[in-house]
Amino acid sequence: MVKFINKSSIFLLISFIFVSTSCKKENETQPNVTPSGYYYPSSTGTEWESVSPSALSWDTTKLNEAFAYAGSKNTYGLIVLKDGRIVKEQYWNNWNQNTRYFLASAGKSVVAFLFGIAQQDGLLNINEKTSQYLNSGWTSLPLPKENLITIKNQLSMTSGLDDGVPDDNCTDSACLIYKSDAGSRWAYHNAPYLLLHDVLTNASGQNINLYSRAKLFDRIGMSQSFWFNNVLYSTTREAARFGSLILRKGIWNNDTLLKDRNYFEAMTQSSQQINLSYGYLWWLNGKSSFMAPTLQTVFNSSLVPEGPSDMIMALGKEDKKIYVVPSLGIVAVRLGDAAETVTLGPSSFDNEFWRRMKAAIRY
């Protein structure tokens, strides 16, 4: 997971560069019956349709209990969508729908999507060796071992580089040392992920902010999102827009951002047979086993037993969450600080929140 320098310094800088827009009153509708068709909010406007829980035959009391639980666990922004419409949205800690916060490693999943677009556009091939984009000697490995590492290994956390180094964010070649052959070991290692930003920059000729804005942000209405020190900052609603895009398999209204169906399916399925619950920088529920960051233990359970089996998740440190549930047409986003113990990615919050959501939705 990305380690952060002094947060107050970062936020002062961000506040100076990026002036937050004032909160505008939303022109939302509240249908009395369940609307048909998938809804996409305008990519340039602020309107966003809503639907009442009762119109969906959800248990409103149980849904409120799920939100109350989240609010008691350092959640500052929480939104639930059904078929693109807002079912419930709530903010705490003086947040509002324009408040931006770092997504931590939930931003990794955004990078995975961007690589699908880059491959689609012919800028790179994820099966190519990484040194084709970073030049030879980007690690301290012997050249034959370095040449085994592909972009796909970086996307699937199977680079074989040692994640037990003192600083797993260090991308200097001296910090990138051999542990095993690429593809033979899964480990949640941040440095190989961070270097994907350099791969994308070298392949596209644009820094990640420019590339993201042209290929993703401006096309789906993530106008306030930006990268800073390789970390994505976004609002709760804009993270929900991205989740909605993933629910629709890369389609936003009449705009198909990711046409490569094979890449999308590979990104959201087991990327290797070591950690079945990991795709291309996405966490996957419903698998027979999972591994967790910093550990080499394989746990014989699904990642979130109380959650829908087809749920895919962008998960970040301190419980940054983008949940996408294709079978139910649901997207949920939780931003804030650590619910309990600080963890990288998966945490107990996932299971407890979805246990309450399951009672509300009755799935």
- Main sheet? 6 strands, antiparallel
Estimate the mean pLDDT confidence. Answer: 91
Order of helices and strands: HHEEEHHHHHHEEHEEHEEEEH
The overall strand count is 11
Structural class: alpha+beta
SS strand fraction: 5-15%
Output the number of helix runs. Answer: 11
Topology record:
Elements: H1 7-17, H2 60-71, E1 75-82, E2 85-91, E3 100-102, H3 106-120, H4 131-134, H5 143-146, H6 151-156, H7 190-204, H8 208-220, E4 226-228, E5 231-235, H9 236-247, E6 251-252, E7 255-256, H10 261-267, E8 283-284, E9 312-316, E10 320-325, E11 330-336, H11 348-361
Antiparallel strand pairs: 1-2, 1-11, 3-5, 4-5, 6-7, 8-9, 9-10, 10-11
Helix pairs in contact: 2-11, 3-7
